[in-house]
């Protein structure tokens, strides 16, 4: 009888929990974009969603993918970066399509005003980064620096919102619910990084994001006398 249940013993609570945590890590980061993507398409209005934040996330996650080739970390973290890049490109595409459709007079062509420019840039950035990583993959300080730059770029995405609130002395136009979701998500990520013994850069990233999130929530209390609405915050990750 013991042999019948051998397979079930492998599927322990700890293992199931590990699978769930890995799944949450892979897909959790893109979940907030689903309603935002649908809302942009439905309202045909992309105001409030920063394409430069998308660009920063594309750069950060591309660097994380390159970092994986220099220092192999958990596969779910790699898949998370790949999925996030795909999601960011989809967000860029829908935002640019909506803006071009709503634009009465076609603006003078500039960098990063069409989807192809974003795609070309990230492909070129990734290709050059891959060549450089291949050449310096054995240089420990270079590999570690790539990882640090990647996670710091991501960790600082909430700073523009923090500074905007400080300058305005108000949290008007900011979704408190969304900031709460950031805090929960970033806390989960940090615990995941520590529990899975991910590279130290990831733990630093998570901790910084939690600090920024809590600071923004603190501003909600500090500026509670100001009128607050439920529009989407500046940080769009």
Structural summary, described in words:
With 237 residues, this protein is mainly alpha-helical. It is 72% helix and 0% strand. The chain has 10 helices and no strands. It has helices at 6-10, 13-28, 33-43, 51-70, 75-102, 115-136, 140-155, 159-168, 176-195, 200-222. Helix 4 runs antiparallel to helix 7 (140-155) and helix 9 packs antiparallel against helix 10. The protein is globular, with a radius of gyration of 20 Å. 28% of the residues are buried. The mean pLDDT is 81.
Can you describe this structure in just a few lines?
With 237 residues, this protein is mostly helical. The protein has helices spanning 6-10, 13-28, 33-43, 51-70, 75-102, 115-136, 140-155, 159-168, 176-195, 200-222.
Show the helix and strand layout.
Elements: H1 6-10, H2 13-28, H3 33-43, H4 51-70, H5 75-102, H6 115-136, H7 140-155, H8 159-168, H9 176-195, H10 200-222
Please provide the count of β strands. Answer: 0
Structural shape: globular
**SS summary, helix count:** 10
Distance between the termini: 51 Å
Helical content stands at over 70%
Biggest sheet record: none
Mean pLDDT: 81
Poorly predicted ranges (pLDDT <50, ≥5 residues)?
none
Beta strand %: under 5%
What are the secondary-structure elements, in order, as H or E? HHHHHHHHHH
Alpha carbon gyration radius: 20 Å
Assembly state of the chains shown: single chain
**Structural category:** mainly alpha
């Amino acid at each position: 009888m013991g042999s019948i249940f051998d397979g079930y013993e492998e599927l322990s609570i700890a293992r199931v929990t590990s699978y769930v945590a890995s799944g949450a890590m892979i897909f959790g980061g893109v979940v907030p974009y689903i309603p935002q993507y649908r809302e942009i398409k439905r309202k045909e209005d992309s105001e409030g969603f920063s394409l430069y934040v998308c660009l920063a996330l594309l750069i950060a996650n591309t660097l994380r993918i390159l970092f994986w080739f220099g220092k192999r970390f958990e596969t779910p973290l790699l898949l998370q970066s790949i999925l996030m890049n795909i999601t960011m490109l989809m967000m860029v595409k829908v935002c640019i399509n909506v803006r071009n459709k709503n634009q009465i007079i076609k603006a003078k062509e500039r960098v990063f005003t069409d989807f192809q420019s974003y795609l070309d840039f990230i492909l070129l950035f990734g290709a050059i980064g891959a060549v450089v990583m291949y050449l310096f993959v054995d240089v420990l300080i270079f590999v570690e620096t790539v990882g640090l730059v990647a996670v710091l770029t991501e960790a600082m995405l909430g700073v523009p919102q923090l500074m905007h609130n400080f300058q305005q002395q108000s949290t008007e136009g900011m979704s408190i619910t969304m900031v709460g979701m950031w805090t929960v998500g970033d806390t989960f990520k940090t615990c995941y990084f520590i529990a899975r013994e991910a590279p130290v850069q990831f733990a630093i990233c998570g901790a910084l994001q939690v600090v920024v999130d809590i600071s923004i929530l603190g501003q909600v209390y500090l500026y509670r006398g100001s009128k607050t609405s439920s529009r989407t915050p500046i940080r769009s990750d």
